[in-house]
Write a structure and sequence with these properties.
205 residues, alpha+beta, Jelly Rolls, 2 domains, 12-stranded antiparallel sheet, 2 helices, 24% helix, elongated
Length: 205
Amino acid sequence: MFKRLLTGAVLALAAGLATSVAAAPGGVHTIDFDNRTAFGCKPGSISDQGLSFSGGWMGCFYAPGDQADFPEPLTSSVMAIGFAPVTMTMTNGNIFDLLSLDLAAGVWTEVGDTTQVTGNLHSGGTLTTTIELDEPFATHALNWLDLDSVSFSTPIPSNAYIAYDNIVIRGQGVPEPAAWALMLGGLIASGYMLRRARQLAAVEA
């Protein structure tokens, strides 16, 4: 009897911890915009696959079969934003790590123009780098951790577009209230089973 209860307690504890891990946000994700299969633009802020981009007057998606005025041939769908500095955040507001991203010159951007990329750290302070915008896309490994947001300055002229693809992020942040409830439930069940097992072991002894 004691062994069965002890086994049940261990399983309950494992289930509670597994649930908490599954419920907590995280993991590495690549935002590649390949869910977009046709050209389309939207004024103001724009969101896709868990990321939000704000500040740009116009954001556009370009697809290989419908690339409109994109300045280079496309082999996959991409996003470009112009007309103003752009700020990138997680749609759910969590902090995140920016591991790498592909950037290129978009519409009206001259090859060789640059954008200043600034990461705003959750603990305060910033990380900054200047990236040259070329054709075709180039991958930039940043490995910036614990960010609230990342901003991109607009290259000259002020209506020039920056093109984005394959943004690799790792989600961070605290679990949602529902996740905390699941964690607490698992731990309470584990504690009850362990206590019950000790009580029965004392009786059997």
